[in-house]
Amino acid sequence: MKVTRAVSPLLPLCQRLLPGRLAGLSLTLLKATALEIAILAGHLLLYPTGITPERRPTPTPPGAPTDLTGTGAGTDTDTGDTPDTTRLPTPTRPPVVLLHGFIDNRSVFVMLRRSLAQHGRQQIESLNYSPLTCDIRTAAELLGRHIEEICERTGRHEVDIVGHSLGGLIARYYVQCLGGDVRVRTLVTLGTPHSGTRVVPLMNAHPIVRQMRPGSGVLDELCQPAPHCRTRFVSFWSDLDQLMDPLETACIEHPDLLVQNVRVSGIGHLALPVHPAVAVGVRQALDAEETEARPAAVPAARADGLTVA
Fold it and tell me: Angle formed by the axes of helices 276-287 and 110-118, to 10°?
């Protein structure tokens, strides 16, 4: 699947100076870097719009007319008549909860949210956690309270979660260590350091960054046996992710978890929650139906991938 179309003005020069395979690798890296810079610039513009918490929809009172038109009103917007409530509502999928990464906010999911909504996801919620959060465990507890509130408000028993970077790690801790597997059907992570990343050592001054380092107490807890975990995991990892060191740390390796690791080739860390081709992969992951009973232990799969050129 072709993903990115970004072209750097330096490509012709690189094609002349760099031979063969090295040139191909460098061209891919240049295109990915150009795309990352463009995405960063756009995200900086959108960032202020995501600082405030998302407005929660008002629950429909019992016995009120059901809105089957998707307009948010209880009456027909063209005629003013009460809609025909005898029509059967279309089946609804679990709500999708979007969880951002470190020092970020819900604005990072503008494109992904739009893609999910355009393809039938009726209940999508983006959660903000404070940039001052210093503990993954505390953030996971807060996530659990949010999910309980969402389930109560929507009348659903389960949700799906998409977490970018640190957001995926927070969601995984909730699922594995706080009993969240009873609430989370599918957890999709995008560029999440499941085994810890060694990038930017100077950031170790921040406690939550130390928890994302290999061998931290939080990551050790996630390595513990989880034989009864019911959540399905899909982990997207990129071979050009500048924040994952080593790159494969964004894969989930756990003998007790039902895992699908998806390699994305040709884009960087910031592009994972933004690029339309990755959004297609996320939608497919969320819509996948399990047709067979889960075995006692399922090894992680690494066969699938998105090729970016």
Answer: 50
Query: Tens digits of per-residue pLDDT, 202-231?
Result: 999 999 999 999 999 999 999 999 999 999
* Cβ–Cβ under 8 Å, residues 244 and 199: yes
pTM for the model stands at 0.79
∠ CA 101-262-27, rounded to 5°: 85
- Six-digit token pair at 228? 């009864």
In the chain, the amino acid numbered 80 is G
The DSSP letter of residue 260 is: E
Query: Could you tell me the CA-to-CA distances from 269 to 184, 243, 273 in Å, in that order?
Result: 24, 7, 8
Compute the CA torsion angle 131, 133, 136, 137 (nearest 10 deg).
-150
Most confident of 2-16, 63-77, 122-136, 245-259: 245-259
Q: Are 31 and 8 in contact (CB under 8 A)?
A: yes
- Counting Cα atoms < 13 Å in the Cβ hemisphere of 295 gives 6
Quick check: helix, strand or coil at residue 233? strand
Tokens describing residue 303:
């066969």
DSSP label of 165 = T
Q: From CA 51, how far away is CA 46, in angstroms rounded?
A: 10
CA angle, corner 229, sides to 162 and 288, nearest 5? 45
Token code pair at residue 16: 């002349």
- Distance from C-alpha of 213 to C-alpha of 218, rounded to nearest angstrom: 9
Q: Could you write out the DSSP letters of every residue in 57-76?
A: PPPPPTTPPP--SSSS-SS-
Nearest to 243 by CA among 209, 204, 198: 198
